[in-house]
Specification:
By secondary structure, the protein is of the alpha/beta class. It is built from 17 helices and 22 strands. Helix 3 links the parallel strand 3 and strand 4. Helix 1 packs parallel to helix 12, helix 5 packs across helix 7 and helix 13 runs parallel beside helix 14. The protein is elongated, with a radius of gyration of 30 Å.
Length: 525
């Protein structure tokens, strides 16, 4: 039974979901870093919000960990690179709090436009300064929307309902999608120069960090108001403070900061700045939704291998998982076969998906295949970290898809280019959905792979099979299956033999000395 640790406060319903899926749950919110490190080793999954910090030390203490689930969008508190290297899937729940976060951005914009927080404080202090708080309408104003993903698109819809004009910058926004949303797609500089209000809805990465800096603010119109409910660091705080002091920026509304909670942040004390303590996802509905979503996602992965909303690997839907499973077995065998044959450094991998398999989601298959290929020579390789390891070793990985293939309904062919040789292996699925090897280095063969295999290449001449069988018999090695292939009479030939036990090195040495043998390898699967 898989075991999951919940180390932050999540809805009690999430525990019920895990248990309903046959997963043992330890609900222990508020664990210290030291306690987490002591306990994490026994768990397959870890569910967190933002309080738990999943560091390299935590990952190093978690040899059994398979998945980390973040009940929310941001994964700043998780060492994703370290998790990937350790072969741990990192998931988030990006859809559970989209409405809540979008509504908070709009609430912040309205509060900023009408100076509600400072007016509220004034009245509470016994004053009645009606003429002091002169706000602006949203009607007919231009909203500059930076980032038009799940949250940004909801903000756009609601802003249009308020009769605002919406101009949007997002490199991934297609003209068709912009038309569907009713927004005008523009470049960033155009947005900066036209917007009365600017709101950002992007992740924090190398491309978006300090996106709204002093140079960007200088391109805005005087009196612009800036809202950030996405991530601290997208808007440069020092540049914003300077622009607020000068009056170029009329006001700002911030739910996020570079340092949280902020310490000695000069923006906090300004009357024209509205601040909240990272409340974007803080509604009862959102917290319930993200907890339920992450529990369902983690349960599906631990029980069936389905991968949804993963940060560090291709997603595999619950519908795709059963269809991909037999192919995963096939490609793992192809990769493992080739990985045990190569004898020099790999420079290039080409995977051809032909026939029925070409219509499937092949990215997870490629990850599994690359993992199988690298595993014979490297430790701790799996479908999560295999693509990263391949990139680190400058191994080029290519996919080729074709709809049709002769003789088979479905076929996967792996070609591995190495420093001193090239190897190709092809396989298919037969009626029982079991994998079959159908070609090795251009030689046709049909064979299933067992735990212990012997691979022999030889020159095709009479008497060879008898001498090979005799040598195995004399060594007490029992043959389970014997599969042959050749290019033609007197040409290159191969034998792929399943045996009942591992072949000792001394026996393998004697097989290599047989007349006509070119190569002999003991393979394990």
């Amino acid at each position: 039974m898989p075991k999951v640790l919940i180390s932050d406060k999540l809805s009690p319903t999430s525990v019920e979901i895990f248990e309903r899926h046959g997963i043992e749950v330890d609900y222990s919110p508020g664990l210290s870093k030291e306690d987490l490190i002591k306990r994490i080793g026994e768990f397959d999954g870890l569910a967190v919000r933002s309080a738990t910090k999943v560091t390299k030390e935590v990952l190093a203490a978690a040899p059994n960990l398979r998945v980390i689930g973040r009940a929310g969008i941001g994964v700043d508190n998780i060492d994703v690179e370290g998790a990937t290297a350790a072969g741990v899937v990192v998931m988030n729940a990006p859809f559970g709090n989209t409405i809540t976060t979008a509504e908070h951005a709009l609430a912040m914009m309205m509060a900023l436009a009408r100076e509600i927080p400072i007016a509220n404080a004034s009245v509470r202090s016994g004053k009645w300064e009606k003429s002091k708080f002169m706000g602006v309408e949203l009607f007919n104003k231009t909203l500059g929307l930076i980032g038009v993903g799940n949250i940004g698109s909801i903000v756009a819809d609601r802003a249009l309902g308020l009769k605002m004009k919406v101009v949007a910058f997002d490199p991934f926004l297609s003209p068709e999608r912009a038309a569907d949303l009713g927004v005008e797609k523009v470049e960033l500089d155009d947005l900066l120069g036209r917007a009365d209000f600017i709101t950002v809805h992007t992740p924090l990465n190398d491309q978006t960090r300090d996106m709204i800096d002093a140079k960007a603010i200088a391109k805005t119109r005087k009196g612009v108001r800036i809202i950030n409910c996405a991530r601290g660091g997208i808007v440069n705080e020092a540049a914003l403070k300077e622009a607020l002091d000068s009056g170029h920026v009329a006001g700002a509304a911030l739910d996020v900061f570079v340092e949280e909670p902020p310490k000695d942040n000069p923006l906090i004390g300004l009357d024209n700045v509205v601040v909240t303590p990272h409340l974007g996802a803080s509604t009862e509905e959102a917290q319930e939704n993200v907890a339920l979503h992450i529990a369902e996602q983690m349960s599906a992965y631990l029980n069936s291998g389905a991968v949804m909303n993963a940060i560090n690997m291709p997603s595999v839907s619950a519908e795709d998982a059963p269809r991909l499973r037999p192919y995963m077995t096939l490609v793992e065998q192809l990769g493992g076969f080739a990985g045990q044959l190569v004898e020099s450094s790999i420079s290039e991998i080409t995977i051809e998906y032909a026939g029925n398999v070409a219509a499937l989601n092949t990215r997870p298959l490629t990850s599994v295949l690359v993992a199988g290929l690298l595993r014979p020579s490297l430790d701790n390789v799996n479908l999560v970290n295999a693509p990263v390891i391949a990139r680190e070793r400058n191994i080029k990985v290519s996919e080729v898809k074709t709809d049709h293939v002769e003789e088979y309904q479905t076929l996967v062919r792996l070609t591995v280019k190495c420093e001193r040789q090239s190897t190709s292996i092809a396989g298919t699925l037969v009626i029982d959905r079991k994998p079959r090897i159908v070609e090795v280095s251009g030689i046709p063969v049909e064979a299933s792979l067992g735990p212990n295999m012997l691979y022999v290449t030889n020159r095709d001449q009479p008497g060879f099979i008898g001498s090979l069988g005799s040598a195995l018999g004399e060594a007490g090695i029992n043959i389970a299956t014997f599969n042959l292939g050749r290019t033609g009479p007197q040409g290159d030939a191969m034998s792929l033999i399943e045996v009942d036990q591992p072949i000792p090195e001394e026996v393998l040495g004697r097989l290599k000395e047989l007349p006509l043998v070119v190569q002999a390898k003991a393979l394990r699967f």
